[in-house]
């Protein structure tokens, strides 16, 4: 049990940094960490950790080989765990690179990577080695210039000689007349509404001082907002029955309040129907409260209401934390992608009547599979870092609360240290919609217990497909109708279980239930 707790503790919540990778813990590694019944190994010399890497001057996007041939580990089996301590060094955010004596890893971003190797022998003794690896920016591949065909020179369209923005009025004008340009934004702009639809993308890029109160895209298209702070929120009003807003990119933004002063918007990002192909990436959404309005404090609320669908919503590589209502509430969205996000500390403040789901996915639109991949979800049900599992909250939290009449793939996510008042995965099908979730190859550590005052209990409920997941110290009960290939540690299946109902509690798995798709630990392997 101590090994399971150490595994979860090794992945602390990000402190103001944006992740550049996401991961899923391999079953073989987790099974070694979780097994507490192996006989103690004979005393042996402590291992040593040292490694080399090649190439010696890697560039972003190039595979780097890490090898530890000089490491000494006599008392096998030994484990070799590689991680990147990040720019904040040891004790900050750490992201896994892989396991094994030799691995390959490709860094997507340039910079200095603090690569750490942990060598641990069968007796539990360990040693670490750290090296700084400088990753250079990749040089763009030159595009061959074709031989031009002489054509008449068109009369150029007049554009501003320089593209700078210091006011909302300037930003509105540049959105309309600066097609294909990158405009520098500086200072406090206040609130701005953009409606322009330039033929080529206009990028508004902050210079380090750019800030907004609120930003509204009302039918706008082909605009990027990059590197700015938004203290209120970003909204896309309903465009049903009118020209749709489309192709908006929100990148490297900081949206919301602060630890000392949480904000209470309807949502930090609000998208309504009639908006297409909206992307939020590499951004931080944080610090909201919900109050008692029942309609405030969300990080992302993309709901079409009674209007037309939202055709294309991408939420990728963001940090979403300290949210007083749902992390994401999504309904009427077609072609949904939620990938490589960190979602943490999602809980209504004491005294609020709001509930808080990390993901509330209601009936989706279209026919394309929705993809929820490689996210890190932790401390759902905790208001902040000082909260404990014994704290009582006025409203409960569901980890993933969803149903869908289009396929949803929930895969390769790490889910840890959460507390929920109701099923961790819950469907509310009324019989008129299909339950099309596939929940596959996720790692789920330390869930529960549910709040005593809850009128519902359990962590898994529904008719979705549950396959090849690792469940460690999952407290509560569960019912499932379709399951196969799952591994349960510190869990048990009650008597009479079939492949149409699974039940878990905190005792060791006592017997195999092949029909239910659950395997018992066998010796030192699964």
From TrEMBL:
InterPro entries: Ig-like_fold, Pectin_lyas_fold, Pectin_lyase_fold/virulence, PKD/Chitinase_dom, PKD_dom, PKD_dom_sf. Residues 1-45 form the signal peptide. Keywords: Signal. Residues 141-159 have a biased composition (Pro residues). GO terms for biological process: carbohydrate metabolic process. Residues 48-138 form the PKD/Chitinase domain. Transmembrane segments: none annotated. Gene3D superfamilies: Immunoglobulins, Single-stranded right-handed beta-helix, Pectin lyase-like. Residues 136-161 are annotated as: Disordered. This is PKD/Chitinase domain-containing protein.
